[in-house]
Amino acid sequence: MPDIIYLDNAATTRLRPEVLDAMMPYLTEKYANPSSIHSFGAECNAACEESRKTIAKMINAKDNEIYFTSGGSESDNWAIKSAAYMRKDKGKHIITSAIEHHAVMETCEFLARDGFEITFVGVDDKGILKLDELKAAIRPDTILISVIYANNEIGTIQPIKEMGEIARSKGILFHTDAVQAFGHVPIDVEKENIDLLSASAHKIHGPKGIGMLYMKNNIKLTPMIHGGPHERRRRAGTLNVPGIVGFGRAAELCRGSMEECAVELTKKRNYLIDRILKEIPHSRLNGDREKRLPGNANISFRYIEGESMLMLVDMKGIAASTGSACASGSLDPSHVLLAIGLPHEIAHGSLRMTLSDYTTKEELDYTVEALKEVVARLRAMSPLYEDAVKNKEV
Ligand SMILES: *Cc1c(COP(=O)(O)O)cnc(C)c1O
Q: Rounded to whole angstroms, how far apart are CA atoms 363 and 354?
């Protein structure tokens, strides 16, 4: 057994050795500024353009529709803020979902404080956006729809194509945060009517601090970072050459094996889910079983507190994540779990385990045994569980 069983791949992933190999020359001897005119610079620029091509191809975009950024958060901020400020004379209404990543949610809330009106469209009990509610939310002053492609907590994959069609038929810009989906599920920006899309390298075994925004050619968002003429004058700053090269290599490795990986990963994920649901009483799967990211398992255990569970499994060498925002110092349960209709006490007892190609069956077996022990131990100490036993609920 390795020192750590890493089941937090939705938070970040391990850098693939092949990716590091590709990056290494650009961290050492190939250090030129890609904007420099000399051939040394041109060589670094060519490497960046190669990455751009690979990434564009992966979502059926054109090379010049890809803009490198510092990651998913920057891409989300850029897409939403620039679209809002550029179109504010047409209207100040934005539609998003109730299950966005913080990078989208907080950006929308920032805009709300600046005079924009935001509608958060609800989801069903599996976390799938209600298209009727989306249609009904559209107003003459709606300028942007932004919906997460696949959710980072419960893994639900959205009907993006349908949303894109709705947005396009009304002349509304459509942005999707595809950070969790990119590299894991096939994406086609043309077929899916996507105008703006965010992705990030470190969620696909690439380096941290590099991402991209896809911007459809007829849409020219104003820059958010002003300065030099980089990225066709839309995003200033010397290019992160090693990061971009690593991002390209990581994307290339996904592209070559996406289907196979998804099948393998889905098998492992289902094995984990099935064993837990079968062997641990009062557990339930959150999110949709089918329309789901291959590596995501999110499970609620009744009569248990997520943070305690997380700490105890951590002591057993397992890195997972919980549905509560304890990292931010608040004990509010996740907005995503509340949006799918979970009551507070059940949302509190949730654990997210996200797998990768590196996850082994042995690790999953160890995890299930550890969970069984931890859950039994916590329930033995739980007054809620004691009451439930007394009242013959369990
Ligand atoms: C990780 C993540 C982000 C943030 O990306 P960074 O590159 O870490 O800034 C945004 N959205 C989703 C859905 C994510 O999972």
A: 12
Q: How far is the CA of 8 from the centre of ligand 1 (A)?
A: 13
Q: Which of 150, 145, 149, 148 is nearest to 134 (CA)?
A: 145
Q: Which residues are CB-contacts of 259 (< 8 A; sequence separation ≥ 6)?
A: none
Please list every protein residue whose CB sits less than 6 Å from any atom of ligand 1.
Answer: 71-73, 76, 101, 103, 148, 152, 177, 179-180, 200, 202-203, 211
As a whole number of angstroms, the distance between CA 144 and CA 173 comes to 5
* Cβ neighbours of 221 (radius 10 Å): 21
Supply the DSSP symbol for 237: S
Q: List the CATH code of the domain at 5-12+258-390.
A: 3.90.1150.10
* Per-run averaged pLDDT (10 residues), the chain, 394 residues: 88 98 98 97 98 98 98 98 97 98 98 98 98 98 98 98 98 98 97 98 98 97 96 97 98 89 96 98 97 98 94 97 62 91 94 97 98 97 89 83
Q: In the Cβ-directed half-sphere of 88, how many Cα atoms lie within 13 Å?
A: 13
Q: Model-level pTM?
A: 0.96
Contact status, residue 338 vs residue 325, Cβ threshold 8 Å:
no
Active site residue 326: yes
Fold classified for 17-254: Aspartate Aminotransferase; domain 2 (3.40.640)
